[in-house]
Amino acid sequence: MASLRMIDIAVNFTDNMFKGIYNGRQCHAADIPAVLTRAWSSGVDRIIVTGGSLEESKEALAIAETDGRLFCTVGVHPTRCKEFEESGDPERHFQALLSLAKEGIEKGKVVAIGECGLDYDRLHFCQPEIQKKYFEKQFELAEAVKLPMFLHMRAAAEDFGEIFSRNKNRIIAGVAHSFTGSAADRDKLLLFDNLFIGINGCSLKTAENLDVLKAIPIERMMIETDSPYCEIKSTHAGINFVKSMWPSKKKEKYEQDCTVKGRNEPCLVRQVLEVVAGCKGVADIDQLSKTLYHNTCRVFFPHDLDSAADALLASGHDIQ
Ligand SMILES: [Zn+2]
What CATH number is given for 6-314 in this structure? Predict the structure, then answer.
C-alpha cells in the first residue's frame, strides 16, 4: 500500500467547489490544503492543475506555485474557445497564452498546453468551427514552447483524429484525458504513437466503458480524477473494483478531515487505479502504479525521469 505512487494529471483546483462554493452558495471555507494533505497521504505525489482559459490558466499557475508537488497547464478548453475572438484580438490573446506558458515554464510549473481539444457534447458553449480553429492553433503554442498537450475529446473522435494527425509531429506527446469513447475511438487514438489515454471515473461508468478500458495498453495509459468532477459513483460499473474509501460528509456538514459527498478530489485517483487493476486483472497494483507513473513522467516530467526509473528498476521492470 505504502509504495503506491501516483500522479493525478487532471485536477480543476480553480473550480469554485474548492473555494467551498456550490451553485453560487458558500458552504464551507476554501480547503485546497486539506485536500492536498489527503492526496499526499494516499500515495499521490504530483498533481497537474488544469487551466481552461487564459484567466483560469493564470489562476492555475498561482495555485501550482503554492506547493512543490503542484504543476499546471496553460490553454483554452474547447467550450471556452470563443474567448479568442471575444478578446477582440485573437492573435494578442494567443501571445498572452504564450507568454504565460513561458513564464510558467521558467518557474518549473507549466508542464503542458491544454486543456484543449474538441467537445461536441457541449456545442451550446462554442460552435465546432471555432473549436476546431483554436484546437489547431494551440498546437502552435505547444510547438513554440516544446511542451506536450493535455487534450479533451468528447463526441468528436473523427475531427479530433483528423486535426491530431495533421499536427502530431509538431508536438512531443499528448494525452486525451477523461476518455469516454467507444472501442473504435480508442483504437483510432492508439494508432498515434505519441498519444496517451487518460482514465478517470467518467471512463468507468458502464460495462461498455470497462470493456473499452480492457484493451488500452497500460503503457499508453495515465490516471486522473478530473476533480471536482467525474467521481466514481456507487451506481457505476467500476465501483465493484474499488477498495479504498474515505469518510465523507455532505457539504453542509463539512469537516476538514473528510471528503465532501459529490465532490471528487485527488486522493480518489487511487480508486481509479484500483478499478483499472481489477478490470484488467492486474494482481500487482504496485507495479501498475509504477508503470502509469513512469508513463506520466516520460510525457510531463522528462527532466525528472530518474525517480520514476528508480522505482521501476527496483521492481525489475525494463526501462525503455
Ligand atoms: Zn476535459
Answer: 3.20.20.140
Q: How confident is the model at residue 81 (pLDDT cuts 50, 70, 90)?
A: very high
Write down the domain spans for the chain. 6-314
Residue matched to cell numbers 486522473: 224
**Which tens digits make up the pLDDT trace of 35-51?**
999 999 999 999 999 99
Omega within 30 of 0 (cis) for the link into 115: yes
Strand partners, 73: 112
Which residue's C-alpha cell is 508537488? 69
Separation of 152 CA from ligand 1 center, angstroms?
A: 5
Ligand 1 center to residue 105 CA distance, Å?
Answer: 22
- Contact of 302 with 296, CB cutoff 8 Å: no
Task: Work out the average pLDDT over 238-252.
Answer: 96
DSSP letter for 118, please: E
Could you give the angle at which helices 183-190 and 157-167 cross, rounded to 10 degrees?
A: 0
Neighbours of ion ligand 1 (CB under 5 A): 152, 178
Separation of 178 CA from ligand 1 center, angstroms? Answer: 6
How far apart (Å, rounded) are the C-alpha atoms in residues 315 and 155?
39
CA of 127 to the centre of ligand 1 (A): 17
